[in-house]
Amino acid sequence: MSTHTIKASTLAEIIAAGGTVIDVRTPAEFKSAHVVGAALQPLDRLDAAAYCQSKGTNTAVYILCQSGKRASIAAEQLTAAGHIQAIVVEGGTLAAIDAGLDIAYGKRAISIERQVRIAAGLLVFCGTLAGVFLHSACLIVPGFVGAGLAFSGLTDTCGMAMALGKCPWNQ
Predict the structure, then answer these.
(1) In terms of residue numbers, what domain contains 29?
(2) Catalytic positions, please?
(3) Pairing of strands 61-64, 86-89
């Protein structure tokens, strides 16, 4: 099943016409910058069946995230729950900014993707140092991170991103 998409540049017309736009990023990412008129609906808290029951399945819902990946996941979940018009905004909030849409800016937050890179890099670096200078058993840490990254790439899911999304600074 293919995901329906629209260009970010058409989002202004949709919002002006009263269209439903949801942003599935974390609350901290949403607070840092979001399209005016978009409602926050974090992906990790999206109950697709409940959403379909409360909002209906026929009204188009336009979904954004940072760049498009999480929006596609949300669209797949809504479609699986019976929604027939779950539409992904190509390129997400970054594309909306580039298209000149009205953006509300707040306190800057580090994106989940960047937090994953920072955490994985630090775990590999510290685990390697500990393995060299303390005990070779510590080398299991970078090995575990490498396996996690490979799993993430193969399955297109990221456990570290899900865990970081629940951290207090991302709420």
Answers:
(1) 4-105
(2) 65
(3) parallel
Do 16 and 79 lie in a common domain? yes
Burial of 60 (0-12, 13-18, 19+ CB in 10 A): middle
C-beta separation of 112 from 164 below 8 A: yes
CATH number at residue 64: 3.40.250.10
Say yes or no to pLDDT of 1 above 60: no
Identify which of 85, 87, 111 has the alpha carbon closest to the alpha carbon of residue 26: 111
Q: How far apart are CA 128 and CA 119, in angstroms?
A: 14
State the residue for tokens 């990023």: 25
pLDDT of residue 115: 92
How large is the average pLDDT for residues 5-19?
Answer: 94
Of all residues in the chain, the percent with pLDDT exceeding 70 is 99
Contact residues for 40 (Cβ-Cβ < 8 A; gap 6+): 22, 23, 25, 27, 30, 34
High-pLDDT (> 90) share of the chain, %: 76
92 in the same domain as 130: no
| H/E segment holding residue 22 | strand 20-23
